[in-house]
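Why does residue order matter? Because the sequence determines the fold. Keep that principle in mind as you read this record.
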Amino acid sequence: MTKRQLLMKRYIFPVALAFSLIVGSVSANAAEGGGLLHAGTNVQDQASLQRGARLFFNYCVGCHSLKYMRYSRIAQDLGLSEQEVMQNLNFTGARFDDPVISHMPAELATKWFGKAPPDLSLEVSAKTADWVYTYLNSFYLDPHSPIGWNNTVLPNAAMPFPLWELQGLQTAQMKPAKVGEDPAVEKLVLSQPGKLTPAQFQQATRDLTNFLEYASEPAALERHHYGIWVLLFLAFFTLLAAMLKKEYWKDVH
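Structure:
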């Protein structure tokens, strides 16, 4: 084997292997997230975060906690006063510096739903904003489900749909099933309108997803703030370095 062939075997093969693993990983992620709606969230949109917080505390906190978030931190990050938070978001009797814990007893939740509802502090980090947004838009009535609801993103989810009065009632149109195959949902149809129009409901679920994305990583707000100052420092340092270079080299011909 020539020296050139040895070099190719030593360097090119590992690079090709790493590239194939990256491509395979991307393809697997794309396949797992296939068919998901684009959430279009923006954690810098404070008004959206405030609307999402209101939705979470009115419709979700009865079952779900945000154990890594404190009411005081939410107030600070979302531009709310202590009075606004305690009057409009705190329905559990917690103190301002307490974490957001649901008041539903775990044993009752297990009895009613089969298992305790999960904490949602890291839900978006674990499953992406697109997954959560699509999940919130994919509930439908299912007479065969013990709780009366089902979901196309997470079939047989042990969760009744808390936002049904806002969206209305969706029903599923099923695909023609072949012999030996289980029926599959072809599309969801809004059979009974809710309090919001479809566009308004999509905005509401986008706001809720945005708030959960913020809750998954509150430091993202600070990181964005610091990033601006870092870019300004780099721009100033580049200008200073250019001026210094010009000064040092002005006598060099």
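Residues 41-238 form a domain with the Cytochrome Bc1 Complex; Chain D, domain 2 fold (CATH 1.10.760.10).
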